[in-house]
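Propose amino acids for all 164 sites.
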């Protein structure tokens, strides 16, 4: 919304009156603070793109592949991309380890009696997802070493686009 008002400037013994343009953000979703990215600005509105991620593993290659994307065909799209990456690397035993949306995910592994167990967990942040992996490792084998990889975090993306 555009509005014009006049400001007074006192300078010594004179008073100056000059116009000042003001832009406000009238279209804020309920619960959103004015000035945030979720509010519309001067004929524009905010478009939110959900963030998605997928982990795919190969048992024979002992490799984990991950793909993230914003508004990229959803979970199915990033899962297909991660699966394609796994298969292109020459693996024929690719399977989905886990998917997530607008959060963080971590993977880890623990060996129990010579069998490697891969673990996938999500969390509100990287620390929470890594902690969840370590807890699962402890539940599987309390005395074995738990290897936790760096968390991958994604969030929705916003763009300011004009009204049509």
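Proposal:
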């Amino acid at each position: 919304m555009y509005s014009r008002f006049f400001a007074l400037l006192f300078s010594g013994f004179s008073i100056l009156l000059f116009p000042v343009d003001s832009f406000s953000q009238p279209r804020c979703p309920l619960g959103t603070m004015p000035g945030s990215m979720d509010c519309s600005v001067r004929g524009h509105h905010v478009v939110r793109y959900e963030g998605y991620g997928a982990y795919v593993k190969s048992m024979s290659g002992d490799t984990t592949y991950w793909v993230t994307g914003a508004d990229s065909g959803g979970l199915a799209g990033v899962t297909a991309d991660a699966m394609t990456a796994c298969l292109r690397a020459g693996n024929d035993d690719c399977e989905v380890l886990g998917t997530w949306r607008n959060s963080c995910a971590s993977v880890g592994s623990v060996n129990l009696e010579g069998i490697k167990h891969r673990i996938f967990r999500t969390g509100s942040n990287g620390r929470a997802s890594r902690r969840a992996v370590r807890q699962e490792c402890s539940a599987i084998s309390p005395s074995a070493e738990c290897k936790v990889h760096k968390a991958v975090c994604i969030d929705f993306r916003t763009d300011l686009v004009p009204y049509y």
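The longest strand covers residues 2-11. The first helix runs from residue 74 to 88.
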